């Protein structure tokens, strides 16, 4: 079957940033499963998956607008050092975690003061064209339960 809306797609991938540096590699663990057409993966990847079949191997280069969006220069926040998660000694360029109303979030330190740090709230891949090397492992119809939840279950999907 070919990938279309409401299919469950199981795949392995390598993700590279604009410089060609590998950021993620699913081959080190389980493949990823998502339900097609429900924004379970970034938009550009979902578009590149459309119509593919089990066994397909392809590379998709995705522009920022269909990946993690443009960088926002105003997305900088001053945070008390004591609010950084984990007992870290912040340095410029260091990735740290802060608590937000949406939960813990990865940010990058851009300035260190005595009591506060300025952190960049942009996603690390914002503003970058990224490349996925994809191997489609399986394409199957979603179960009624998956359809009602709007996401894939099982290995690589939601486990609940
Ligand atoms: Zn579910």
Structural class: mainly beta
List the bound ligands: zinc ion
Strand coverage percent? 35-45%
Query: What is the distance, rounded to the nearest whole angstrom, between the alpha carbons of the first and last residues?
Result: 27 Å
Molecular structure report:
This protein is mainly beta. Helices cover 8% and strands 39% of the residues. Strands 1, 2, 3, 4 and 9 form a 5-stranded antiparallel beta sheet that branches. A hairpin with a 2-residue loop joins strand 6 and strand 7. The chain is elongated and about 60 Å long. The mean pLDDT is 94. Bound molecules: zinc ion. Zinc ion binds next to loops.
Helices and strands in order:
Layout: E1 7-16, E2 22-25, E3 32-35, H1 43-49, E4 57-62, E5 76-80, E6 95-100, E7 103-112, E8 116-120, E9 130-141, H2 144-149
Antiparallel strand pairs: 1-2, 1-3, 1-9, 4-9, 5-8, 6-7, 7-8
The chain binds zinc ion (ZN).
Residues 149, 151, 153, 158, 160 line the site of zinc ion.
Tell me briefly what this model is.
The protein is mainly β and 160 residues long. The protein contains 2 helices and 9 strands, in the order βββαββββββα.
